[in-house]
Write a structure and sequence with these properties.
The protein has 153 residues and is of the alpha+beta class. The chain is 37% helix and 22% strand.
């Protein structure tokens, strides 16, 4: 078993990764030492770190792609992403479709529309504090889908 990573993705990218994976580097987030420090988490707080990782990836997807869509994968290794390392940003050198175990998405894209408009193009850190993003995170949990539901994206 590998290390869990959360990959912010557009619907098109998610379909491609689920079908074919990638031989190119893929940006993701993981429960790294930096993430534990950023969220002031103890080493024993793995579940909290994984939850934070998914939240960060969802905000990254929102700012980059206009909706919260996150793929979850188990990978053997990753490298820190200098641009987002403090938030657990990592780079996966390659990804096989079978490494993707689940995905998260809003029940309806409409719930994220306002937050998407105000957060577009911002960094995760900039978007994190916006009232519309805070409201979205507090009031709209992402829906979990396992690998058997892959083609529903």
């Amino acid at each position: 078993m590998g290390v869990m990573v959360c990959i912010p993705a557009s619907r098109e990218q998610a379909r491609e990764l689920l079908a074919n994976g990638s031989n190119e580097p893929v940006a993701a987030f993981a429960a790294t030492e930096h993430l534990y420090q950023t969220f002031d988490l103890a080493p024993s707080q793995d579940e909290d770190a994984e939850f934070a990782t998914a939240l960060i990836a969802s905000i990254a997807a929102l700012t980059r792609f206009g909706e919260r869509l996150v793929l979850v994968a188990d990978v053997d290794a990753y490298e820190p992403d200098p641009a987002t390392e403090h938030d657990g940003g990592v780079i996966i050198s390659r990804l096989e479709p079978q490494q993707i175990s689940a995905w998260f998405v809003d029940a309806s894209p409409a719930v994220a529309e306002q937050a998407s408009r105000v957060a577009e193009g911002l960094s995760v850190d900039e978007a994190w504090e916006l009232p519309d993003v805070v409201d979205l995170l507090a009031n709209h949990d992402l829906c979990w889908h396992d690998s058997s539901e892959r083609m529903a994206i």
